[in-house]
Amino acid sequence: MTVEATFQRRVSRWGIFELVLPGPVDSAAFSDPGFGATFARGHRTIRCDGFYDGDGRYVVRLMPDAEGEMSFLTWGRAQQLDGVTGSFVVDAPSTGVHGPVRVAHGTHFAYADGVPYRELGTTCYAWTHQGDAIEERTLATLADAPFNKIRMCIFPKDYAYNKNEPERYPYERGTDGLWDFARFNPAYFTHLEQRLAQLAALGIEADLILFHPYDRWGFSRMPADADDRYLRYVVSRLSAFRNVWWSLANEFDLMTSKTESDWDRFFRIIQALDSVQHPRSIHNCRRFYDHSKAWVTHCSIQRSDVERTREWREQYSKPVVIDECCYEGDIPQRWGDITAEEMVRRFWETTVRGGYCGHGETYADPDDVLWWSKGGVLKGHSPARLALLREVLASAPATGLDPLDGIVKHGFPCAGRIGEYYLTYTGPHQPRAISLSLPSETSFDVDVIDTWAMTIARVPGSHRGQCTVELPGRPYIAVRARRST
Length: 485
Hints:
Elements: E1 10-12, E2 17-22, E3 35-41, E4 44-49, E5 51-52, E6 57-62, E7 68-76, E8 85-91, E9 101-104, E10 108-111, E11 121-123, H1 132-143, E12 149-153, E13 171-173, E14 179-184, H2 186-201, E15 205-211, H3 224-238, E16 244-249, H4 260-273, E17 280-281, E18 299-302, H5 309-316, E19 320-324, E20 328-329, H6 340-351, E21 356-359, E22 361-362, H7 371-374, H8 382-394, E23 402-403, E24 414-417, E25 421-425, E26 433-437, E27 444-450, E28 455-458, E29 466-470, E30 477-483
Parallel strand pairs: 1-8, 11-12, 11-21, 12-15, 15-16, 16-17, 18-19, 19-21, 20-22
Antiparallel strand pairs: 2-6, 3-4, 3-7, 5-6, 7-8, 9-10, 13-14, 23-24, 24-25, 25-30, 26-29, 27-28, 27-30
Helix pairs in contact: 3-4, 6-8
């Protein structure tokens, strides 16, 4: 084996194994490195494409998902990259690491080890393009926030409140001063990888938006061969990070230079190259992509009428994530001026209809550092209330909350597991009592949850069959019934 090859002899399960080999210094290798490796453990093999990291560095990465000894055999167009062999040991996962997120139980999520993943996301589109001071502030804010997923763009963004030039770009410029879409900038991706690793350390999934229309650099209008090259490079480089999700686009239907067949092709490229098979979705503005297509793992939806969550679950038979339901804030745009009460309400409404919701914040700032775009600090009142929702979800059934009928009178939605768990929500209504139809053969503990005041009060006694629960006569109240232990 080439003595110059570098790789770890031991790596933890769901960590990142990286093999680096020296090879030809050739910028053409960004387009086609002609290099990769096949990994083997017993009778199982995994093929991973490598990527060119510049300066004669050829890299291939793997996220090992099973403990034990693994071997590898490289293939390469250049002689020094071909036929390199070696082995390494995969140890137990690091403390608190549960692996990548998967779809589980049809319309929910779980980590690879089976631990439930209850998505509670936020949006900071361009946070990794703001420089170290703001980016580190964003990470510090996330460390104290309830969110376990963040939507973020790979390409920089040009939009209201986001007109600053980024410090780095994904491509190098040619001698003509134009972007060379065949020559990636490794420093750009090294910086992104640093941020992905920091998010993983916080237990936060990175929902990477691959394309978006808010662009003044030309990245949204690249030719088809450049689009495909970019996807191959990004997937080869980033898929070994366990906390990656792929979002094909933010508001795909505003990108008029792309056709439906383009989006289909993009999905297929990712599906073919991603050895981990991370979650895959696509986000809309006005019209939906067909989420029923096989390569879509879950629905990523922009809509304010979250009451339709159950309808979309039943239509697509996949997890429904309302990634954008408008933003808590006070900017002039109507999509960015809802109250904290309304943001929290939309989360709870989505939850009791069997889905998951996404947060965003757009409070005006003299320096235009709005959380939804640049990150920084949170100013709103919804995150603390959403922390309570995360606490409630943590004790929900491991298989997730599914919509239930016939449990609550007067039309209030309910989700849970028959005979085990029931959760309902009054929203803006303020009844003095609510009637539940619980199983008569089982006793239940009942809690009244004030989702705004952030209190949970146990109703005295045990409850079964038809029962009436007295409420405080305020809006935004949830009622939880759990089978008594």
